[in-house]
Amino acid sequence: MFYSHRLYSAQQSRELDQLAIKGDANDSGIPSYTLMQRAANAVADFYQLQFPQVHSLLILTGAGNNAGDGYLIAKLAIEQGCDVSVFSLIDPCHLKDDAEQAYLEWVDAGGEFTEDVNDALHNADLIIDAMLGTGLKRDLDGEWFDVVESVNELDTPVIAVDIPSGLNADTGAVMGNAIIADYSVCFISLKKGLFTGQARNHCGEIIFNDLQVPASVYSEINEEAHLLSDEELSSQIQERTACTHKGETGHLLIVGGNKGMCGAVILAAQAALRSGVGRVSVVTRSEHVTAVLSAQPEVMVYGVDEPVIPDALLQNVDVIAIGPGLGRDEWSRRLFEQVLYQEHYKLLDADALYHLPEHAADLSDAVITPHPGEAAKLLGIDVLNEEQDRFQSIKQLYEEYNAVVVLKGAGTLIYDGQGPVDICPFGNPGMATAGMGDVLSGVIAALMAQGYEKEEAARMGVCLHSQAADAAVADSGQIGLVASDLLPYLRQCINF
């Protein structure tokens, strides 16, 4: 459904729930308890489909409506003849409203608590996590921490109800400890924190169920983030006419490849060509000219030991990408300064970002592509703080540098200062290897050189890069993937 790509904060999710309950002039609304019943049925239907042989089910409950969902799931499992154990981390007398009603229905159905959670954990075929919802404000400790740790030590499959307990719905950060789920069944709205940062380790496969909330409800609230999709990507790729020539498909200049680092500019140049740019020029150390030409003879290479880019070359290119293998010496600094003040669209990555804080410049014509460590340096904080809230980090980077920002990592974020933050849902752990960022730089810069707006090129480039990695992994597996493995798949992905 169209709104399954809309991602919301925890507060917005609560507002959507209330709008669904309240209704409007054209809709009488949905009673809150009906929504809870639908949520329980959604989880029960899913686990029966996914795990039809389950006999022993353990449901972990806590406080609030998440616990209410858990009690109704337990009631349904009893009615289906399943061996059901329920362990609560709070005294159920503290439950209120819908959660209390769900608890009492479970009791009426014959439900009883298990006293030995460890025994129940080891005897369960499937674990349902209904301990905590989206309202978590502090780190888990005590018994909550211990139960989560015990669950994570097992090989038993886990389904999280709406969100894995211990995960921050707004940031994807782990609050002390968090359930590692195989599946997360989410209701009404998808929370933005589920798709980036540590959440990628904890959510497993995300299943969305709108609980029959009408589409009109979602039009009332502007989402804070947006999950990019295949459909959006394919709709933006420009078809070429029969008379298209290389002069119309852009000229990209890549600057980098300091001593001993020419591989970075080679990868960026190769990726740019596979992404459809008409011409690629490379400025690098003279000692690397032969290596670059041997690796990719279609590239035009300029060896510059005196760090000055020829004016004639600058006047002939559409976009400049600087950073791959650039280095941090005087040669790199002077090239960076020359590029920084050119009136070209630019992409800044890697060591270009190292030099950036020393200069005041308007980067409204640029895309910057920091990984978490580079982002932390640009923000003047440590990387742990930067990764605690990637959404805040990317907005701060935009405010500081006025550039389109690509914050790389698990669940890469893209932000252009307008509307929601975009999230790339593609990619895999095999990408954790040297040179992947150089390939991404080449892809995004190539799209910019072909005439795509920089915001569009950033979104498309991130997705193409990750999809190429997914395709390469599908053929040969994650371990041992190298950046150059993506090159043939880039061409496939942009032509699909």
Structure report:
The longest helix is centred in the C-terminal third of the chain and has 23 residues, at 454-476. 41% of the residues lie in helices and 15% in strands. It is an alpha/beta fold and 496 residues long. It folds into 2 domains: 2-226, Rossmann fold; 230-494, Ribokinase (UDP-N-acetylmuramoyl-L-alanine:D-glutamate ligase).
Task: Extract low-pLDDT stretches.
Answer: none
Number of strands: 18
CATH architecture of the largest domain: 3-Layer(aba) Sandwich
Tally the helices.
Answer: 20
Mean pLDDT: 96
By CATH, the topology of the largest domain is: UDP-N-acetylmuramoyl-L-alanine:D-glutamate ligase
Structural class: alpha/beta
**Roughly how many Å is the radius of gyration?**
26 Å
Instruction: Give the end-to-end Cα distance, rounded to a whole number of Å.
Output: 22 Å
Hey, roughly how much beta strand do the residues contain? 15-25%
**Major sheet details:** 12 strands, mixed
Count structural domains.
Answer: 2
The proportion of residues forming helix, as a percent range, comes to: 40-55%
Return the CATH class of the largest domain.
Answer: Alpha Beta
CATH homologous superfamily of the largest domain - what is it? Ribokinase
User: Looking at the structure, what is the overall shape?
Assistant: elongated
**Strand order across the largest sheet:** 7-1-9-18-17-16-15-14-13-10-11-12
